[in-house]
């Protein structure tokens, strides 16, 4: 756990479920010529699509969208806007939801039913959606015709969102998130060695989280699932001793914690608590390993100053430092 002192291309949006297929020269061009520039759009008070829902409908919709990658980086307010803007679409077996080559109109989230994706003139079957997933985003994101045909294999129910709302919410939120996190990451000394595009990829991978005053963020002894960059508020780092928990450090905006367990592959060495209302940017373990390899040596040098790790972890850190230094030579 760090006590380090501080100081997409929307990639996350392109990691989608709609099948990727070859582009066919005979396909007609999309009639949609509009472009959406999130940097130029400063109208937050414009008309928004709202489709009233019962509590039961909203609950079902929440269950359907909670694992959709596209919505992972949305905050609570943005997610509520997504839920407001989606409308129900009931389908019958053999209904065509979208057809390859058509213009994109809606994005779809599956609540129930089985759906098959086909491509090409011979309508080759390439994917089956079984009561979960989403499709239709590529045409909306990139102003391109539909990449595949989706047909309902059974009766089912979908949730849909129109293209304008989809692009405004998803693209604008991704743009704002990147800009906000780029500024946060620029204030972290260990990340100065990253190239601009590497910081952008890192910003795209961060997930916003909030913790109330007094709430425990991580627990000593737990397995690590990621590391944290502090956006706002203060975080108390504490270790368990015979007499109880003892505070060993107080972290603020621009600092980070949680990386020690990721580097050493050991359980959490300390606990972290929100001193006041805290906002953090969370980086999952797989993204940490993929995106922060270049700054591992900087992290290791910082860890040598941690006074609360046991001897076995000290040895692991020192050996890792020597290994990094030998690779540099």
Tell me what the structure shows.
The chain is of the alpha+beta class and 329 residues long. Helix content is 32%, strand content 26%. The protein has 10 helices and 16 strands. It has a 4-stranded antiparallel β-sheet. It is elongated. The protein starts with 10 loop residues before the first helix and ends with a helix. Mean pLDDT is 78; it is low at 2-33.
Keywords:
329 residues, alpha+beta, four-stranded antiparallel β-sheet, 10 helices, 16 strands, 26% strand
Q: How is the topology of this model organized?
A:
Layout: H1 11-14, H2 55-65, H3 76-85, E1 87-91, E2 96-98, E3 106-112, E4 114-119, E5 124-130, E6 134-135, H4 137-142, E7 149-152, E8 156-162, H5 163-186, H6 196-205, E9 207-211, E10 216-218, E11 226-232, E12 235-241, E13 244-251, E14 256-257, H7 259-264, E15 271-274, E16 278-284, H8 285-291, H9 296-303, H10 311-328
Antiparallel strand pairs: 1-8, 2-7, 3-6, 3-8, 4-5, 4-7, 9-16, 10-15, 11-14, 11-16, 12-13, 12-15
Helix pairs in contact: 3-5, 5-6, 9-10
Family: Belongs to the cAMP-dependent kinase regulatory chain family.
Protein name: Cyclic nucleotide-binding domain-containing protein
Organism: Aedes albopictus (Asian tiger mosquito)
């Amino acid at each position: 756990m760090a006590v380090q002192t501080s100081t997409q291309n929307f990639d996350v949006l392109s990691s989608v479920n709609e099948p990727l297929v070859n582009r066919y020269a005979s396909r007609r061009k999309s009639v949609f010529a509009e472009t959406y520039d999130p940097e130029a759009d400063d109208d937050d008070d414009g008309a928004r699509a709202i489709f009233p829902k019962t509590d039961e409908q909203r609950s079902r919709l929440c269950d359907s969208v909670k694992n959709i990658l596209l919505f992972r980086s949305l905050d609570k307010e943005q997610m509520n806007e997504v839920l407001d803007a989606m409308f129900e679409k009931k389908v019958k077996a053999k209904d065509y939801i979208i057809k390859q080559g058509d213009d994109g109109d809606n994005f779809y989230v599956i609540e129930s039913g089985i759906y098959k994706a086909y491509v090409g003139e011979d309508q080759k079957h390439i994917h089956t959606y079984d009561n979960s997933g989403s499709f239709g985003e590529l045409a909306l994101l990139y102003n391109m015709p539909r990449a595949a045909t989706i047909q309902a294999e059974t009766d089912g129910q979908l949730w849909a969102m129109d293209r304008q709302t989809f692009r405004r919410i998803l693209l604008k939120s991704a743009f704002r998130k990147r800009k906000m996190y780029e500024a946060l990451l620029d204030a972290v000394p260990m990340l100065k060695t990253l190239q601009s595009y590497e910081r952008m990829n890192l910003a795209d991978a961060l997930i916003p989280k909030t913790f109330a005053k007094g709430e425990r963020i991580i627990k000593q002894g737990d397995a690590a699932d990621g590391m944290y960059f502090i956006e706002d508020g203060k975080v108390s780092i504490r270790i368990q001793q015979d007499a109880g928990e003892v505070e060993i450090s107080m972290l603020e905006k621009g600092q980070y914690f949680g990386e020690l367990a990721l580097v050493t592959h050991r359980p959490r060495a300390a606990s972290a608590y929100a001193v006041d209302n805290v906002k953090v940017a969370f980086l999952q373990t797989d993204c940490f390993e993929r995106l922060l390899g270049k700054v591992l040596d900087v992290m290791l040098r910082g860890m040598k100053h941690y006074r609360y790790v046991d001897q076995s972890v000290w040895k692991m850190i020192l050996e890792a430092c020597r290994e990094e230094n030998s690779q540099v030579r």
